[in-house]
Write a structure and sequence with these properties.
- This protein has 471 residues and is of the alpha/beta class.
- Helices cover 46% and strands 17% of the residues.
- The protein has 17 helices and eleven strands.
- Strand 8 and strand 9 (213-226) form a beta hairpin.
- Helix 11 runs antiparallel to helix 17.
- It starts with a helix and ends with a helix.
- The model is unreliable at 435-471 (pLDDT under 50).
- Bound molecules: adenosine-5'-triphosphate and magnesium ion (MG) (3 copies).
Length: 471
């Protein structure tokens, strides 16, 4: 099955279970507390919170999503994107755990025909009801059901309000490709062997100010399955980027940048991910800027541009801009599900092109500033650029580590990849720590962090120059 076929089969399946299909909502949510649509349930938040009555008791969607908390994961894990599509079915005071579990199983085993022996499930540690349904009614053997804690299997709209346990479906990718060495792993452990494909959320509790839980008058179901991950297992690939949702885009990148074979694999993935995100953000009305959503878009375009530079081992200049040329490849793949993009093609290309040109100037200035740092190293008789600087160049201005390293090495200097990776890992941990509730995930971590760390004014030296020249 192709990605397009999977998307359609999901909606058709839930239509056959009397769900109403809603179009994907905008990436810009109709909700002031939220920067971007991070999950399929976002457009339905008022129904989940009981603020409005749902027009239908059963709804199904494929929803455009963006998660900036996964930005650093892109290209590094086989399963994370910034932009992705979430397939979902929702019940507002209608069916509950039993049907949600049964239908998810029916869809993946009867429609997608996934190998049952590879399927594992998790339930919240005290959710015996879900455990029994999986074990007794569906027949998933006890060895393939794990009980997990809050971090993975408890969902909350915020510190107070509706919440509940969830249950996830995992696909065991052992011996499908690279994942052969994790014999004693279980879902919920680190590593890539168990791929989380679907999360079923059972919203049944209301958390009060004093922390206590009272049952909600209406129980709801909110599920989310990543289309790209489902495609990877259906198409027997060990990486989302190898599915047909990406092959055309990857082909485009390789042809535009003249990349051979599997060279610069990580950069190609980053570009593929970021160009999709850029197309959809601009399509929904976001423009590059220095704050809010615009800053996210700017950061994504710049990272993609930096990845191109790193792949070609050259600081790209104005005449090297390439990202806007990839827009047609994205549209070709996504046209069927999002036909409205076609009429915006020229506009999207133009926005990307202008931002690329602007960033090319920044990169040039950045290189000059890096040269200044190199002079300082020379003066101090040192060889290594401190990790604070390689990381700042990366995090704030989109210089991939490889590019900084390349410039340094060309002049006999060096940078520690290990130290850089340490800084990056700290950042990933920080976004992990702050993602326990949807409201946490919603605030834009890197913007907050950016201003927290550097402040708007105390930014000195070359970094300040960057700011002035790039706006
Ligand atoms: P993971 O643990 O792999 O980061 P998650 O638990 O954060 O996933 P959920 O919030 O439960 O994900 O979202 C529901 C589903 O959406 C996941 O089961 C997965 O299929 C998909 N999904 C989540 N984040 C991403 C992402 N960054 N890229 C692609 N698909 C994603
Ligand atoms: Mg996640
Ligand atoms: Mg998870
Ligand atoms: Mg999950």
């Amino acid at each position: 099955m192709t990605g397009n076929e999977i998307r359609k089969s999901f909606v058709d399946f839930f239509k056959s279970k009397e769900h109403k299909h809603f179009e994907s909502a905008s990436l810009i949510p109709d909700d002031k507390s939220l920067l971007l649509t991070v999950a399929g349930m976002v457009p339905f938040k008022p129904f989940f919170l009981g603020e409005k009555e749902a027009p239908f008791k059963r709804i199904t969607t494929y929803q455009k999503c963006i998660r900036t908390n996964d930005l650093e994961n892109v290209g590094r894990t086989p399963r994370h994107h910034t932009f992705f599509e979430m397939l979902g079915n929702f019940s507002f005071g209608d069916y509950f755990k039993k049907e949600a579990i049964e239908w998810s199983w029916e869809y993946i085993t009867k429609v997608l025909k996934l190998e049952e022996d590879r399927l594992w499930v998790s339930v919240y540690k005290t959710d015996d009801e879900a455990y029994e349904i999986w074990n007794k009614e569906i027949g998933v053997p006890a060895e393939r059901i794990v009980r997990l804690g809050e971090e993975d299997n408890w969902w909350a709209a915020g510190p107070v309000g509706s919440c509940g346990p969830c249950s996830e479906i995992y696909y065991d990718t052992q011996n499908m490709g690279k994942n052969n060495e994790e014999a004693d792993r279980k879902p919920g452990d680190d590593g890539d062997r168990f791929l989380e494909i679907w999360n079923l959320v059972f919203t049944e509790w209301n958390r009060l100010e004093d922390g206590s839980l009272v049952p909600l008058p209406e129980k709801n179901i909110d599920t989310g399955a990543g289309l790209e991950r489902i495609a990877s297992v259906v198409q027997n690939k060990d990486n989302n980027f190898d599915t047909d949702l990406f092959t055309n885009i990857t082909k485009g990148i390789k042809s535009v940048l003249e990349i051979q074979g599997n060279e610069s694999e990580e950069a190609v993935k980053i570009i593929a991910d970021h160009v999709r995100a850029s197309v959809f953000l601009i399509g929904d009305g976001v423009l590059p800027s220095n704050e809010g959503r615009g800053y996210i878009l700017r950061k994504i375009i710049r990272r993609a541009f930096g990845a191109g530079s790193a792949a070609k081992q050259k600081v790209f200049e104005k005449e090297d801009i390439f990202l806007y040329k990839l827009v047609p490849y994205v549209l070709e793949t996504m046209n069927e599900a999002y036909p409205e993009l076609a009429e915006k093609q020229e506009y999207i290309e133009k926005v990307i092109r202008l931002e690329e040109e602007r960033f090319a100037t920044t990169l040039k200035n950045g290189t000059e500033m890096l040269e200044e740092e190199i002079q300082k190293l020379k003066g101090a008789n040192q060889k290594e650029l401190p990790a604070e600087l390689t990381f700042k160049l990366y995090d704030t201005f989109g210089f991939p580590f490889e590019l900084t390293k390349l410039i340094l090495e060309n002049q006999g200097f060096e940078a520690s990849e290990e130290e850089f990776e340490k800084k990056l890992a700290e950042q990933v941990q920080r976004s992990k720590d702050s993602r326990t509730t949807i409201s946490d995930m919603i605030k834009d971590e890197f913007i907050d962090e950016f201003f927290e760390k550097h402040g708007k004014t105390e930014f000195t030296g070359y970094l300040q120059n960057f700011e002035e020249k790039s706006t």
